[in-house]
Design brief:
Chain lengths: 255, 300
């Protein structure tokens, strides 16, 4: 498979940059030249073509790799529906905002509201896979409707808040109020988590579907899935009882 | 043609196009895999009376199953497309869903034709079921008293072949059984095939229709019954006192031919006089397996 486009940041970002229009629509079918014309909006200096900000090599063919210090890059992968994006480094806020499909893999950390809904909209992610190998800021996966959000390290407060459906997997500790007000959906916590008081403990068991999911995360993305995660027990909490109550928090337990 | 002194008749097995699904069952231990598999494939010898033909294709080590637990691969076959969906839902619903610790997956992920199975069984969850999509494939988590039953939403369906066969014509019943057992053992390891009859062996081969009852679609194959040698138009060579049939179904014709070759080779042993095959003159089934072609290179 082609490596796709490799995009290297020419000059370190000095101001916040909005990447919301870079990967929307059918970007994988664009040539690198067409992709280079897509605008990035700088907070102070306004729009600038992607190709001026990044040095591009190779044709996309469904894949792009972003390289550079992008901690001030917001909304990377917003509205993306197809293709595979790998980011070597960390990203800013609203990464994968309302992601609809494809895979967005971030090797570092991301800011707040990853995979969440755009402000004023009801639905966050509606599909695809958002893999953050590092930590996420607050409200990751807020109001997500479908899809998979994986946090390799710590997840901030209010992770999965107001989830409509979908799955969030957190390998590290999850912040307070994770899963709060969810209607459906699953928050899978392999580290520590304190379910909101509006969740009710149901049972401790071995969910087979997690073996499928975690095995894939290990093989496809090389995430640190351990035998204890596959063969272990999980405490199931149902909630949020202040909402529909069809959601769940599955928290790994030594026994 | 002779193989180790056993005469290979110049005839062919006539087989039919069927619809096939591959079901992968996993469970916490091999014990429960076998428990589910034996029930799922029970009473599934022939579409004539069972509506479905099924058997274990092979056992799967944990490293080959979707969830990393011990498993088994089962082929389930019917004559029609619609029938396959019904039988899958019935059988998985009654025998796998009910069996402790099991999960059930599609074993034909690349088959373009898909039939809904989990999408129907989910209703057992009475609204408490949960769907999950992993790698683009939807599964249903159905709450049960033990915990959860996981089943894939859709199963692949292929055109397969049913009714590959050969007959072991032996001097004694013991010799026929020993040869059939050897054939069955040799064929059990062939990928893409199943032996739907008990132990892989049929003692009651049938012919189309009946001499007396018009509504019967099959009756005893009197031409191969040793006890009727004197009262019917027997097809048995002199010295034959017992006949057993091996029936093999598969995902395609080459798989069946390979399996038949292994089985016939194993069956050619002391006490066996000839190997024959069942056919209907070549007019009913589109797949013809000529024994001598299949055994080319094995003959002595």
């Amino acid at each position: 498979m082609s490596e796709g486009t490799v995009a290297r940041l020419r000059v370190p970002l000095q101001q916040r940059a909005d990447f919301a229009e870079l990967l929307v629509g059918s970007w994988p079918s664009l040539s690198s030249r067409e992709l280079a014309e897509r605008p990035i909006y700088l907070e102070s200096d306004g729009p600038i073509p992607f190709g001026e900000m990044f040095e591009l090599k190779g044709e996309p063919r469904g894949r792009i790799r972003l390289i550079g210090d992008l901690a001030m890059a917001d909304r990377v992968g917003a509205g993306m529906t197809e293709g595979e994006v790998v980011v070597e480094g960390s990203l800013g806020d609203e990464t994968g905002l309302a992601l609809g499909g494809g895979a967005l893999v971030v090797e570092g950390d991301v800011g707040a509201r990853a995979g969440a809904a755009p402000l004023g909209f009801k639905r966050g992610m509606t599909g695809g896979e958002l893999i953050v190998r590092g930590s996420t800021g607050s409200a990751a996966g807020a109001t997500m409707r479908r899809g998979l959000l994986v946090v390799g390290k710590k997840a901030g407060d209010q992770t999965g808040i107001g989830m409509i459906a979908g799955t969030v997997v957190v390998f590290g500790d999850a912040g307070t109020n994770s899963g709060l007000w969810s209607k459906r959906g699953s928050v899978v916590a392999l580290g520590r988590i304190t379910p909101p008081p509006t969740y009710v403990y149901a049972c401790t068991y071995q969910p087979v579907h997690l073996r499928l999911l975690l095995t894939r995360l290990g093989t496809r993305y090389g995430l640190p899935v351990r035998p204890r995660h596959l063969k272990g027990f999980y405490r199931r909490y149902s909630g949020d009882m202040a909402e529909l109550g069809k959601g769940e928090i599955l928290t790994w337990t030594a026994k | 043609m002779k193989i180790r002194g056993v005469f290979i008749e110049d005839t062919f097995a006539e087989a039919f196009t069927m619809r096939v699904a591959r079901i992968v069952i996993t469970a916490r231990s091999s014990r429960w895999v076998r428990a589910a598999a034996s029930k799922l494939t029970g009473f599934a010898t022939s579409v004539i009376g069972c509506k479905v033909e099924a058997g274990v294709e092979r056992e799967l080590p944990a490293s080959e199953t979707p969830d990393g637990r011990p498993g088994t691969s089962i082929l389930l076959m019917t004559m029609g497309k619609d029938d396959l969906a019904k039988r899958l839902i019935e059988r998985i619903g009654q025998t796998v869903l009910t069996c402790p610790t099991t999960a059930c997956y599609d074993g034909l992920p690349d088959a373009p034709d898909r039939v809904g199975v989990g999408s129907a069984l989910r209703f057992f969850g009475d609204g408490f079921q949960i769907s999950k999509v992993v790698a683009g494939v939807r599964y249903w988590r159905i709450p049960v008293m033990e915990g959860e039953f996981l089943v894939q939403e859709k199963f692949g369906m292929l055109k397969g072949v049913g009714g590959g066969n050969f007959l072991i014509l032996a001097r004694t019943a013991d010799a026929a059984l020993e040869a059939a057992e050897a054939a069955s053992d040799a064929m059990a390891a062939q990928p893409g095939t199943i032996l739907p009859f008990p132990g892989g062996v049929v003692r009651s081969g049938s012919k189309v229709g009946s001499r007396r009852i018009k509504s019967m679609i099959a009756s005893t194959n009197d031409a191969y019954c040793p006890t009727l040698r004197a009262v019917t138009k027997s097809a048995l060579p002199e010295g034959v006192n017992s006949v057993l049939e091996i029936v093999v179904n598969g995902v395609d014709a080459p798989s069946i031919a390979t399996s038949m070759r292994a089985g016939i080779d194993a069956a050619c042993r002391s006490g066996v006089i000839a190997i024959s095959a069942g056919n209907y003159g070549g007019k009913l089934g589109p797949h013809h397996f000529h024994l001598r072609e299949i055994m080319t290179g094995v003959a002595s």
